[in-house]
Amino acid sequence: MTDERIVQVTEALKHVVDPDRQRDVVGAKMVRDISVDGTTISLTVALSSPDSPHRAQIEQGIRTALGNLEWPTDIELSWTAEVSANTGFGQEGQTIPGVKNTIAIASGKGGVGKSTVAANLTVALRELGTKVGLLDGDIYGPNIPGMLGVNGRPVLENDKIQPLAGFGVPVMSMGFLTDPGQAVIWRGPMIAQALRQLVHDVAWGELDYLVVDLPPGTGDAPLSLSQLLPLSGAVIVSTPQDVALQDVRRGIAMFETLRVPVLGVIENMSYFVSPDTGARFEIFDHGGAKRAAEELGVPFLGEIPLDPEIRIAADNGQPVTSRGKDDPVARPYYEAASLIGSEVARLNAAKPDPLPVL
Ligand SMILES: Nc1ncnc2c1ncn2[C@@H]1O[C@H](COP(=O)(O)OP(=O)(O)O)[C@@H](O)[C@H]1O
Ligand SMILES: [Mg+2]
After folding, report:
1. What is the pTM of this model?
2. Cα 81 to ligand 1 centre (Å)
3. Of 62, 107, 151, 353, whose Cβ has the fewest other Cβ atoms within 10 Å?
4. Counting ligands in written order, which one lies closest to the CA of residue 144?
5. Given 1.10.150.170, 3.30.300.130, 3.30.43.10, 2.60.210.10, which CATH number is that of 2-81?
């Protein structure tokens, strides 16, 4: 009887589609541990990204499908996330062992808040329960150590650089290898060598996401690093004014040339709300990044206001997202993190399965 009901439940769930994978939840192996006790159906759904923006839709679909069964049902749903891996890189040397997805945080120019976004997204993804690492690829301005309050010298073990840890996240930065305030003068071949080491000689361990703070702009350093990385995609951070948006277009063009998907555009320093009067000021204009994203056909990941709390938290090595997802200042970073996770899952699902190793 029970077994028969489990079969009926499974059949019914084949009508529920996961928007990320564009497959039914049974076929996509997202449904776990179905049990039926009398009229109570319990099951676990493994979403393909943390805090998936599609969760409510999937839940609705499941409740409708199971509500159509010929017997009365109580439904007990549990949720988990199982991040899919980017299998698009078949050649050896292109992948980073153990790392499922690599996400670049890019900007058309410096000072737009790229590193702050990278640090906050990383901590948000970690708080949402995924395994995430952070590579500070900005060899000219390695600000990540300060933003996460991590310092020290990484050690070598078995020929691999052991990353340092902050907020439960493995972190690697050139900033750990140079003295604070010291200007590092990089010449072409040294840059390539240093970047290669940062990518391939670090013991990252098992990661769902490796977030990379790219050097700003579309010059040699961001280009070389993007080519070294097995990127699932790139996030572009911009401020709203017109001149910045021209840089967004250049950034998108660079990733298109590299055949790296653009996961979306974030508008940083989007507006300022005066704490005493509540009046809203659009210091750098507003909404430009959204328009540019629409025009260029890439996702828009949201607006982050200009807020002194964000700057102070970053200066103190305590990114606002470490306060959790219900904190109002942290909230937009969490929303962007969910959308990025979902877009990565969608792109991974659209890739063919890797060829079996013979
Ligand atoms: N939304 C924001 N509100 C207030 N200050 C911000 C915001 N985003 C970034 N900042 C601050 O702006 C400065 C530049 O940000 P940073 O992340 O270092 O930019 P980038 O990496 O693009 O050069 C930093 O002092 C940072 O704390
Ligand atoms: Mg920076």
Report:
1. 0.93
2. 31
3. 353
4. 2
5. 3.30.300.130
